[in-house]
Specification:
The chain has 138 residues and is mainly alpha-helical. Helix content is 81%, strand content 0%.
Length: 138
Amino acid sequence: MTAAELSHELGARVNYIDRHRPLLIQIQYALFAVGIFFYIASRVQPGVFQQSTWGSLAYEMPAAFWGAVNALGAMVTILGLVKPVNSLMVAFGASMQVMQFGAISTSCIFYNGDYGIGIYAMCLAVLHVKLLYESTRF
């Protein structure tokens, strides 16, 4: 193998979204279901979500808002991931998720919430940062 061929092989970009699209769609469906659950639970049983769990920053907004944002961001991302992939919709949905999970993780970790939920939300924020990056890359 020549140096030019090796450089071409190493520099070849793999389309992350096309490669992992089925898994990304399944993750978004799960997040959509969680968002709908949060929304319904907050409407049926007010006061079920506690400030000691989510932190004081997240508690400033109603729980129905967080559930609706989660479900909406996941649905926009799902619609963008369906073939043919619409990168703008994926980027918009992923950016909604990044903002939401970033705010929740910040609230949980730095504003007296549950650290476990903060780490979970942080991991989901990192996943959506990668999805946002990849959707704007191609």
